[in-house]
Amino acid sequence: MALSTPKVLVTGACGQIGSELVPELRKTYAKENVIATDIKEPPPELKETGPFEWLDVTNRKSIGHIIKKYQVDIIYHLAAILSAKGEQNPSLAWQVNMIGTYNILELARELGIKQVFIPSSIAVFGPETPKVMTPQETILLPKTMYGITKVAGELLGEYYVRRFGLDVRGCRYPGIISYKTPPGGGTTDYAVAIFHEAIKNKKYTCFLREDTVLPMMYMPDCLKAAIQLMETEASRLKHHTNFNVAAMSFSPAELATEIKKYIPEFEIIYQPDERQAIAETWPRSIDDSAAREEWGWQPDYDLPRMVEDMVRNLMANLNK
Tell me: the pLDDT tens digits for 266-282? Predict the structure, then answer.
């Protein structure tokens, strides 16, 4: 007898990662089997290409209703308040990031969900963490509410793996860069905004210092990491919810230099704000050898290839 196609639920589907992960998942599982959910109005490409449901992840009853309605097998739990917005409203960050995650894990346990993906972040690290080639196992003392909730989320996920046998997986994403979605309130979002401003206005005011090196990843690699990790045979994994993943590291000055190859008249001004303090608690580069060994992680994009693709696609989109 043929196996039925899994039903996949995505929370936070209108966010930076979700808005691109949903279409990718719909290619694999068929449009009707991937249920996008969010508290925001979805873009047409999400709403018109498959099921969409309004969902507040702090409302456990609503989550349970949707899981039962669609007979969900797999959850990608992306709903979260990011670093900079989390500092503006720590209480909301706690409610969404912690209560939301607990609700997802509890319902997954109760209702027999097969797999749960919960992304973590380099925000789990703090100033005491080694900044160069940050190890897989290291000091986790974040100084932001976002980072605190992500550490707790990793530990909670590991608890559900060991205590209940729930298949929870996740990776610590660096800053994510995409031409399809606007900046979403993260400290690394300068690396998205800079392209929009370079193309539209030939000038950008950066909220980080020019020499602030941070780990980054291009969206195609972000999606690849999530899907590849979830498709890996469980027996291969020694870690579960906290894989370091890396692709490239650069400073605003290095990024600006690369952009000038395509937009020679581009100018950048540096006016560091409160986000500089957040960035200084994060690593400069990441050791992702555990992900490479356990599930074959390998990024496709470095800085030059990412910039070329960003500029080409954004110019095409903005000139439509």
Answer: 999 999 998 999 899 89
